[in-house]
Structure formats: structure tokens, C-alpha cells
Amino acid sequence: MVGDTPERAAEKLRGQLVPQVNRLEDSIRSLTDEALGAKTDEFRRRVDDGASLDDLLPEAFAVVREAARRTLGQRHYDVQLIGGAVLHQGKIAEMKTGEGKTLSPPCRHF
């Protein structure tokens, strides 16, 4: 959007994307390891069927968050989801020291 400041763009993500990801957390957490792993193929099929990456973003981030929790014992903070979404949008994400750049979801096509 023209005139959006970085702060306004981040707040928009905090108000829209983050709640969507958080609402999916319990249902994604209940998946078996096999079902969680199968999400990648499901996402590919959905993209092949016409879904946009933006359509998949909340669920994909919820899956990444759960995979990190299971494999690394670390859960993405909301600010890390915002950083990943900013990168997904092709923008530069600036995060302060201590905000967890290491766990910000990777943003590449499936």
C-alpha cells in the first residue's frame, strides 16, 4: 500500500496473519509426525490447483512453527512470523537484537 510505514505494515501483519497462525496451532500440534510431514506435498498440490502462496501462508507458518517445536524444542514468537511474512512479501525485514532472526520462517517457494 502506498504510504504504509514499516511499522504500519508490521502492525497489519500482527493483526491479520499472526492471529490466523495462532488459531491453527492446536490443530497442527495434534497431527502425527507423518501427517505433519505430508503437509509439504499437500501445499504443493494446492499451489498446483491454483492456490496462491499468500493463501497458504498462515497454515504453512503454523506447520513450520510446529516442526521447529518438535525438532528444535523452540517455538516461533509472533515477531518471527512477522519477519518471515515481510521477507515473503519481498521486502527487507529489520529485526532488533534478541528478536530471533534465526527462527524467522524461511521464505521460499515450496
From TrEMBL:
The UniProt entry, under Gene3D superfamilies, shows:
P-loop containing nucleotide triphosphate hydrolases
Q: Which GO terms describe its biological process?
A: intracellular protein transport; protein import; protein targeting
InterPro entries for the chain:
P-loop_NTPase, SecA, SecA_DEAD, SecA_motor_DEAD
In Pfam terms, one family for this protein is: SecA_DEAD
Q: Origin, by domain of life?
A: Eukaryota
Give the organism, scientific name: Geodia barretti (Barrett's horny sponge)
Kindly provide the name given to this protein in its UniProt entry. Protein translocase subunit SecA
Swiss-Prot/TrEMBL keywords: Protein transport, Translocation, Transport
Domain SecA family profile: start-end pairs: 1-110
Tell whether Transport is among the UniProt keywords.
yes
The cellular component terms of Gene Ontology attached to this UniProt record, alphabetical and capped at eight, are: cytosol; plasma membrane
PANTHER family the record matches: CHLOROPLAST PROTEIN-TRANSPORTING ATPASE, SECA INNER MEMBRANE COMPONENT OF SEC PROTEIN SECRETION SYSTEM
